[in-house]
Design goal:
The protein is of the alpha+beta class. It has five helices and five strands.
């Protein structure tokens, strides 16, 4: 997958716990919740420095979108699903069925939900913005509490901007 490219990694502390970020010199390739204990070899590069900075701004409610080069690895279908995720505006939600419809497969909501759980770049590719058609929060690979936190963070910032 990355045979000819060095991969750098670092741990990023957030209000939701640690994230393990990995990047080549060209793009961020993964960002996942890191709940394990123990040391991890860290060798940060420019992409990871910018990722850390932008995530800090996001959690401080001063950033609504990310401007990082991304290179998530996955099947063609997963890439389609992740592209839809990336297009969901800040503080907005979409149902799994709506996401499947946007891909061109309205009955494929279970496949879309599976693709979302495979999203290798959490928060930045915002799978937390997808909920059930009935309005229930649905699942999240990082856990429901984290999904609730992210949705509430975005909602509160959005509401505060509307009231100004």
């Amino acid at each position: 997958m990355y045979a000819n490219h060095a991969i750098y990694q670092t741990i990023i502390a957030t209000p939701l716990g640690d994230l393990l970020a990995k990047a080549s010199n060209e793009a961020l390739v993964s960002l996942e919740f890191y709940d394990r204990k123990g040391e991890i070899f860290q060798n940060e590069n420019e992409i990871l420095s910018v990722t850390t900075k932008q995530l800090g701004e996001y959690f401080a409610s001063s950033r609504k979108s990310f401007t990082l080069p991304l290179a998530p690895q996955g099947t063609h279908f997963w890439q389609l699903a992740w592209n839809i995720l990336h297009s969901i505006p800040y503080a907005t939600t979409l149902s799994y069925k709506q996401q499947a419809t946007l891909i061109g497969n309205p009955k494929g909501y279970r496949a879309v939900a599976n693709a979302n759980t495979k999203n290798p770049i959490v928060i930045i590719i915002p799978c937390h913005r997808v909920i059930n058609a009935n309005g229930n929060i649905g699942g999240y690979s990082g856990g429901i509490k984290r999904k609730e936190f992210l949705l509430e963070l975005e909602k509160q910032y959005h509401l505060s901007q509307q009231n100004q």
